[in-house]
Give the backbone structure.
Amino acid sequence: MLVLGIETTCDETAAAVVERGDDGEGRILANVVRSQIAEHAAFGGVVPEIAARAHVELLDGLIAAAMDEAGVEFAGLSGIAAAAGPGLIGGVIVGLTTAKAIALVHGLPLVAVNHLEAHALTPRLTGPLEFPYCLFLVSGGHTQIVAVCGVGDYVRLGTTVDDAVGEAFDKVAKLMGLAYPGGPQVERMAAMGDAMRFAFPRPMAGRKDANFSLSGLKTAVRQEAERIAPLSDADVADLCASFQAAVIDSVADRLDVGLAQFKARFGAPAALVAAGGVAANAALRAALQAVAARAQTGLILPPPALCTDNGAMIAWAGAERLALGLTDALDTAPRARWRLDETPPPAPLHNTRARF
Amino acid sequence: MLILAIDTALEACSAAVLDTAAAGDGFAGDGAAVEIDCERTLIASETLPMKRGHAEALMPLIARVMERAQTNFAALDRIAVTVGPGSFTGLRVGIAAARGLALAAARPAVGITTLAALAAPLAAEGGPDPIVAAIDARHGQVYFQVLGGNGTTLIRPRIGPIEEATRAARFGTPRLIGNAAPLLAAAWPAQAPAPLDIDPRPAPDIAWVAWLGAATRTDQDSARPLYLRPPDARPAAGAALPRR
């Protein structure tokens, strides 16, 4: 089956055409992404109204380009998939409405895809992978450990009680005056710095739950940086290196706990899979190898273009759902919030510092 | 000419199918000058008053209207949509729908301003008196446009304080239309003659969106948002620590 996928939940406008064979094998026929980095750079972060304005101007052209590249007519599709959330509602509305319009004209089924589910199912697009496996979703908006037990069957094992990992990277970059988007800049500076110079806390280390907390670490970095300001280039590099080391230690500890919980509840995972923009961080990728080895499972890192937001993952999740006969009506609502499972989010910590 | 018209920019969710040929000889290619019973020329239409929820309601509504019109998307000549000014989210629902339908059906999409669509029925009546179409933009501001009695534009669509819009009193005794008409009337200069008519309709008549869509050129990329107000965003400043 051939599925068009549309992604507009944050600051990438994306469209893709993906084929799913009867044997469950995936093939990307076109994957067009237009990032809005330039539009948001002056603001040091994604501005929802600017993002929504860009999506509505760009999306139809991107869909046409993807269809062209795939060499497919709308009538030849099996379904139209769009990310219906979670995300910035202004953008979600544009993507979902456009998908409904195409579905209506050609009498095709609509699949309203959960953006997080699309990240979770991506490794099955790039290669054969059986359920259950363990997903570590790490981006500017999400930090979650998820047991992927089947299509539509997810159990969240851990999540952040405050900032996402990518959000913490971006905030540290902003503090240091690094260019937007800041995450990759922090990684670049960290590679030149001394990770031992500053002893930052390893948030949540040793806790029995598999949740994350980043806001206290971010505050510790700010206080240390304020203490030694004005900052030299070496100071910035050392702060970035020490911060990144703390994040990675914390992530590794949280994943060790998460994977232990996974084993206890679902048996050995078929793999540990990383997804999300921060999964492109080389130091983190290296740390994940060690985590997977400790858990005696394999590590799957989809190519960076499929880790960050893209249309192919939406199309693929749409195809997986369509193969099970799961479709959605034309009155489906866009959703700013949409959890993968019914596990309630953890309560915020009242004394985070005491736990460091 | 067969046209699907869509409006979700203000406090309604509407769609209609218009066949200009069925309307007889009244149509001369200039929608604003047509003197006909606009409503009766629609093959099918549906308008739901709506403050929010356009994204959920619109596509099933379009499906119903197309079904009632007993036509299909391939038979359409074009798709007309209101592009604002109005609710940013609302107008994007309509434009995303129109452009998605246009792409899927390989038909042109044309944009109509909400202000032009509001003013159109008054302009069609003719008469010497100016028309002020005005939409509440909140925070003491209105989106407005001023037209002569025959529909020629005197002040192009803009956003400004209510007092700025009431300066249209200098063009004569106007007819006010749009959900901000009562706001303008309440702030009307005491020394100027009172407005002739105050029509507080919350959204344009979908029939006029369709007629104006028929009269719009398709060679211009017009199905694009008309916000009139920049996004609420300030450049990041002051967060970075001093560097050596």
